[in-house]
Amino acid sequence: MSDARMIRRSPRRRGDAALGAAVSLGLALGAFGCTPLDPGSWAAPSSMGRVKMTSFAPLVREVLPAVVNVSAIERPSKTAADEDATPAGIDPVRTRDTISELPPSALDKLLRRFFNEQHRDEVPQARGLALGSGFIIDPSGYIVTDNHVVENADRVTVTFSDGTERPARIAGRDALTDLALLKVDAPHPLPYLRWGDSDAARVGDWVLAIGNPFGLDDTVSSGIISARGRDIHAGPYDDFLQIDASINRGNSGGPTFDLEGKVIGINSAIYSPNGGSVGIGFAIPANLARPVIDQLKERGRVERGWLGVQIQEVTPEIAQGFGLTKPVGALVTGISTGGPAARAGIAQGDVILSIAGHDISTMRDLPLVVAEMPIGRPADVILWRRNREITLRPMTGEMPRGPETADLGTDENQSGSTESADVGAGLKLAALTPQRRRRLQIPVGISGVAVTAISDESPLAAADLLPGDVIESVDQQSVASPKDVLAKLAAAQAGGGTVVMLIDRQGASHYVALPLRSASAARRNG
Fold first, then answer.
1. What pairs with residue 427 in β-bridges?
2. Which of 101, 183, 264, 524 could lock onto 198 through a cystine, CB 3.0 to 4.6 A?
3. Whole-model pTM above 0.85?
C-alpha cells in the first residue's frame, strides 16, 4: 500500500477544504444503541434514549498532530529486483466481489500486490520512493509504521502535521508482523498517541483512520470494524482487524482509532480488484503490535518463543482418519532437528491440542500462543497420538533468526475426498532408487515410495497427489515399496474409513486425507 509516486502539491494549508483533516457527519445513532464515549464531543441523549453524534472533528483535532507521513528512499538493488515481481492485473479476481469467493492462489497474489507493491518515480540510480504513514507513540520521538514501508530504505524522512521534516533512523523492524519502529531527534517533547485495547473492539464499533493515501497528507476516513481475526496469508501471526474505513496505498503504517482516540490497529493491507479502496482493509491489532513495538524499542529486535515444528490444518477428513471426534488442533508435519519439540519427543503426525493451558482450536492459534511463551521455561503440551492423548513438556526455545525460522511455518495444502471403489486405480508407484532420487531431487533424509504417474480419473488425484511426490507413510505406518502402499490403501478401503498419507513434495511434508467407501458400501449405494 505504500505509494512511491512523487505527487507535486502546493504548500500545505490546514484549512484547505479538499484535503482538510476534519470530517463532519450528522448521524442519528440512537436506533443502533450507540453510547457516547467523550461527552465533550457528543450531544446529550434525548428523552427517547437516542444519542446524536454531531462530528468527529474534536477527536480528529486531538489526534492529528501525532500522525506523520513517512518517506523512504529505497536501495537500487531492491528496486531492480522487485520491478516486475507482481503483475499489473490478475484476471481471476475481475469478476469476484468477496474474499471467500477467490481461489486461494489468486487471493494471495492480490493481497501481496497491495502489501508489497510500490509505484516508483524516475529518480537517480533507479531508486524508489516509498510513501507511507506512521504515528508517534512516545514523546521522545519514537514512531510506529509498517515494515514494508521501510524494509529496504536507504534514507527515511518523517513529515509532521505542521509541515516540519526530520530524518529518522530505523530503531527496529519485524517482518513477521510487518511492524517497524522509527526514531527522530526532536528539540521538545512531541504529541503522542496511546494504545487501546483491540481485544475489546467489537464488530460494528466505529473507527477512524488517518494517513497519507496517494500522497494526500492528513486524510481522515471513518467506518466500522467489519470482522476480527482475519488471516490474509501475510505471515504466521495473521490476526487482522478488518475495517471498512477507506484506506489506500500510502495509508500503510497509519493508525486506526477508536472513539476514545486510542490506537487499536495499524493499517497494513487492503483487498481490491481495481487498485482503490472497496471498503476491505486490514489493520494489525494493537494488542499484537504493542509487545512487538516494546521489544523493538528496548532491544531493536523481537524475541519469540519457538517449538521447532511445521504444522498444517486439521481438516474434517484428517480428523476422521486420526480418530479425533472433531477437527481441532495443529497437525505436526515436520520437526526441526535439535529443536525443543524434537528434544521433548514430539513427532511427525502428532496433533497439538493445547499448550500451556491454551486450547489450540485451529492451526493458526499455535504460532500466536507459542510466540508469547516465556523462553527457557517448560510448557505442558497435550497431543493426540495414535488415538489417545499424551502430555509432553518441551522447553520453549527462542525462535532462530535466519532461514531455519521456516520451521515455524504452516502447510496449507488441502485434502480432497472420493467415493471410488478402486482407490489404487490410475496410480503408478516406484521404489526410491538412488537414480530416481537424483532425478526427482528428493532429499537424502526422505524415505518412502515415489509417485511416477497419476491419472486425472484416479481417486487419489482428489487428494492433492502429484507425480514426483513421495509417499512416506499411510495411516501413520511407514512404507518402503509400491506393494506396501497398495496393500495399506486396500486395507483402508476395506475398512471404509479415511486414509491419511504423509507426502513429501520438494522437501516439504504435509498430510492428505481421503475418505473411502468399501466396495460393499459402494454396491449398496450404487
1. 454
2. 264
3. no
